[in-house]
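pipeline: protein-struct stage 2 | run 1193 | beta-N-acetylhexosaminidase
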Amino acid sequence: MKGSSDIGFVGNIGRRFLLRQQYPLCRKPLLVLAMLTVLAIFVFLQYSPVGVSTAHRTRDELGPGPAAAPVGMVGLPERASEERRHVAPVVGGGIYNAVSHKRLYIPERRYVHFDLKGAPPKVSYMKQVFPLLREAGANGLLLEYEDMFPYEGALTSVRAKNAYSKEELGEILEAAQQNELEVIPLVQTFGHMEFVLKVPDFRHSRETDEHPTALCPSRNDSFTLVTNMIDQVVALHPHIRWLHIGCDEVFHLGYCSRCQQRDREELFLSHVTRVARYVREKHKRIPIIWDDMLRQISVDKLRQFSVGTLVEPMVWTYVKDVYRFVSYSNWATYGEIFDSVWAASAFKGAFGETLTVPNAKMHLENNEGWLEVMSEQHGKFKNFRGIVVTGWQRYDHFASLCELFPAGLPSLILDLLVLTNGAYTNALPTRFHSMLKCTHSRTQMDLESDPFLWQKGYGCFFPGSAVFRMTQTHSEAIKKARDYLMDVTVSKAWLTDYNIRRN
């Protein structure tokens, strides 16, 4: 059976060969049509723009809009490209964002927040840091002065003893301009006004006398105080487009006798919109506010006060799961009310009021979480302006210091590289080491075993690196002291509270 099968097979082949010799291909229209179709597709893909990889096309060819963004922005982005939304493909698998074939969103503005209400950096230090921030992909600054601004006149008592002079402030702004970092000043105008309300001259403007945190919006002199602050800040920032007026965490609202007669939401919105109108009408600037006080307010109430035409919200949360605190319904509301919106993440000052060094792993996860949310939500808005990476020096004006800026710089650089690239890639550690002038082996990062970047950053020599290394020394000393106390008081039972009391 096997032999006959083979003979039949050979015979079939021979017959097919003879048929092909007798009947040319033109007698096979379906085969010819298929071959011509394949050839046409090949030629089309070879010479048509459709077949050109976006990685090799110019930005002009890509055109405007989300799909027209520069691709794989690992290096320093061009200034001109930042006036449009950015969507780029992931260049490699990330340690936390492991999506390898998904197009991710690159925010057009990547600003760094300087919280100056505790251990403010010297001007000379800022001049060293600004070029590094720009190299990492930052293109702007959010400067929160508090009492470091050189207030004068009726506000002289507000300024700190070590406040920047007008000349020093001018140097900071000049250095920012030289590094193409656009500046947005932040003036608190409602909550977190401890630095003003603690001063005896302005005690009467508190919402509650025992808590110098929030301004009473029902007093006329409160508005005078706020506008005086705004006027002085804008006067020394003549080229700004935006002014951040704070308005977050107004915890004490509706407590005084006059405010108790009004609805709390209306109290908040009436004050915010009054200040915003002042900024727009007198100074022709766009006011920004933190969004947290808006999250529970209805669309109808927001429309009633025309909030969407007056301010741009800066949506902030510092956790990995952004939707945990800013829900889908919040985004739906914001999409109905606002044409433009900002995001705010953190590189330090968010996971413990007494920390000395930030957990870079948690902050990276927060920024990667924001990349995903911006990718999903930017279509709801005419302008998704960008993201501000915040770095809090302390939780409020009366709190102790948390991570200092130099201790958080490695975390900041890592976050900026990821935001500028659209995802964590295997190329980023090399750039990280180069920018921070690290001398040791450039191996891949392992934030699971090194969440504070002590192993990666110990041999680096960036501005303030000695402070960063000191945090590790401090942490080790604290651990040794605690281990010793545990050993002699509990583990070996010699110096327990019981023994001390009884002996």
